[in-house]
Amino acid sequence: MHDEFTPLLGSTDWNEEWKELQKLRRHADDASFWDKRSATFTTKDAPNRYVEQFLAYAAIRPGETVFDMGCGTGALAVPLGEAGHKVAAADFSQGMLDQMQVRLDAAGVRTVFPKLMSWEDDWPAFGVRAGMTDVAIASRSIATADLRDSLLRLSEVARRRVCITLATASSPRVDERILAAAGLPCLIGRDYLYAFNILAAEGIKAEVRYIASTREDTFATPEDAFEKLAAMIDDSSAVQASAAERERARASLREWLAVNLVPNEHAGEPDCKGVAQGAWHLAEPRTVTWAFLSWNTDGTA
Which is nearest to 174 in space by CA: 102, 94, 98, 240? Predict the structure, then answer.
């Protein structure tokens, strides 16, 4: 007799598992956190590969309208507006929206309409209705407790197509490579797999592509580098370890940095955001790979 076997693929409620995973992660940042962060964003962001690749994959047609949820400072909304698209750009941080408005004004764009709104708000109360735009996008902004609800909300808004990006492993805050070097297992979820499986359970056939985003982090001093990267070790949402294990990991991180932290020959020069680079950087830049998921809402393949 064979032991009874229940395949997890068909029996797991991926959204419920996502909810449990979110409980292990750091508390969601509130609007005030991002209001403060927005002050560190400049209006000098140069075109970057992530934005270019996202827009290429999104294949938004001339004249189509767009809903950008979690727009931040307008990395996508601004170039879309410059291309002539009407964009409803929503974020729960007024600071981020203010920075976006500075960029829009500088570019002379008048077709992007900011909305101070969160994922959890009553969207229709803010004028975001079913079938409101041709395309809905959410770039690196889905960190909600209920992933299924967020995905279906985007599907409802978009008449033709939805495009999102989610982490595949390392994220801007946590790097698997560095944690492994420090001797700690990483609890980073493959967020895109949850989204893909949740969509599949809804009968939605999502397409998956990938965008590699390089992070050229620089640091004022070796100690500055250590303290900033050690924050990954202290992040209870990414690592489950005892105090002793974390202390050993911090020691291992120092040893790793002694080999992998090198002087930055471009120290003092502006980076892609116009901020002066620090005197030190990693010999091998950090790479974050994002999964680009897209699906059509108009019944086409």
Answer: 240
